[in-house]
Amino acid sequence: MGKTPPPHRRCAEHDLSGAASACSAQRQERPRRGGATAKTPSARRRGDENTFGSTALRRKRPQRCREPALRAPPKATSAQRRRATTAPAPPTPLKKGSPAALWNAHTQNATRSAGCLKIGSHVSFSGKGLLAAAEEALGYGATTFMIYTGAPQNTRRKPMEEQYVPEGLALMKEHGIDEIVVHAPYIINLGSYKTDTFGLAVEFLQSEIERTAYIGAADSIVLHPGAYTDKDAQYGIKRIAEGLNEVLTVNGRVHIALETMAGKGTELGRTFEELAAIMDKVHDNDRLRVCLDTCHVHDAGYDIINDFDGVMQEFDRIIGLDRLAVIHVNDSKNPRGARKDRHAPIGSGYIGFDAIHRIVHHEVAKGKPIILETPWIGKDKANQRPMYEAEIALLTGNAEGRFGPEFLEDVARLRAFFDEQLGHPGRNGRDYVLATWELLQDKKQRAEDKREPMERLYDLVVEHGLFPDCSEEQINMRLVGYFAGI
Known about the structure:
With 486 residues, this protein is α/β, with parallel strands linked by helices. 37% of the residues lie in helices and 10% in strands.
C-alpha cells in the first residue's frame, strides 16, 4: 500500500450529539488531577442489517430453496470458509477454583452493558500484577485496559500464581470492569524463516495464551502478525499461517486478534487482504480475530479521517465485521500512507480528535475494548507522563465531571490565548498542528527546531506564564482539552 488508495465513497456522518457519556465506573470520586474493488456479495459476512450511524449496510438473507438432489454444492468462497459455522473443538475445561473459573462463573450469567463505553489504555503489569494494573486503570477513569503479562522485549515471566490475579479480578468486579485485553510480546515473529526464531515464536505464543486464559477476564490476545525479513510477503503469509496452525492445535477459549499494521519495513498485516490471506490458510480459524489500530491503518493508507464508514465496509467485505474484537486508538505523527507507525497524543497528530471521537462512538466499536496506546510526554524523559486520564475523559464527554469546571475554564483561556498568539490556528488548533507536522517533514527545518506541535504550544504557554501554578502534566492535559475543542 505504498500508493494512497482512491477515496471511498463518502457516507453521511452519524450524529454524535447524543453520544453516551462514561458509565459509573468512569465517574469515581477521586482527587481531581490536571485538575478497492469490492469482492462479490458472497464474500460478505452473513448477518442482520448493520447500521453505521446514518449509513446502513443492507444484507440479503440467503433464500431457502431446494437444490436438485444431484447438484454439487457451490464452492465456498474464502470469506465463507473463514466464517464457517462448523462447531470448533470444545475448549479445555477450566480448572475448578482457578481465577479463570471463578471469573467465568461471575460473568456467564451477566449481561455486559452495551451502553457503557469500554475504554482504557495500556497499563503496567509489574509489581502486584493484575491488582496493580487494575488500580492504575481505575486511576485513569478506565472501564477496560490492556496488559503485557511480562516485559514485551524478553521471555522472562513470573508465574501467574504470583501475579495477584484473584485480587485484581475482585477489584475489577467491584468497579464494573468485565473485560480486558492482553498484548503478545513484540519478540514473537511467526513470519521468520529462521527455525529457532519461528520455534520460539510458536512456543512463546502458546505460553502467553495459557497465561491469558489463567486471568479469565481477557477474551483476546493481540498479536502483531509478523515480518518476512529476507523473504517476501507470500512466504511470510504462509509462514505466519503455519505458526498459527501449530499454536491453535491446543484447544481454548482465548482468541488471537491479529493487529492491523502500518507497513513499516517487512511487517505483514498492513492491508485487510493480507490479514484475510493469513486467515484463509489457518485450518481452525474460528479463534482468529482482528485488532484495528487507528494509527496503523491511517499510516497504511486507509482514509479513516474522511471515510471511516467506507473503510469499515471494505473491512466487512474482505474480513467480516464479526472478526473485529479490539480497537487501538492513537493519533499519528505522519500523513496518511506514510507507513511509519509513530503514535501521537489524541488531537496532536494528523488524524485529529474529531475523527478519533467519531471512531470511538461508531457503531462498529460498541461493546468492544477500546485501548489507548498514546505516548507518554514531557520535556524530561525521566518524568514523562501519559495523557490517558484526559483522553478518556474527553472521548467520553466526562471532562467536567472528572476535573471540574475550572478545567473547562482553563481550556477556554488557552483557546483565547492561542487565537491571539498564533493568529488563526484553526478549529482546536488543527491548522497549526498540521502546518507544524508538514514543516517537520523537511529535514532542514527539523534540524533547526525538532519540537513537535504539542511541545511548541506547551513552551508558548510556559513562556507567557499562563498557568504558573500548574505542573507540566496539568498543562499538557489542558492542551489535550484544547485539541478536543471543549
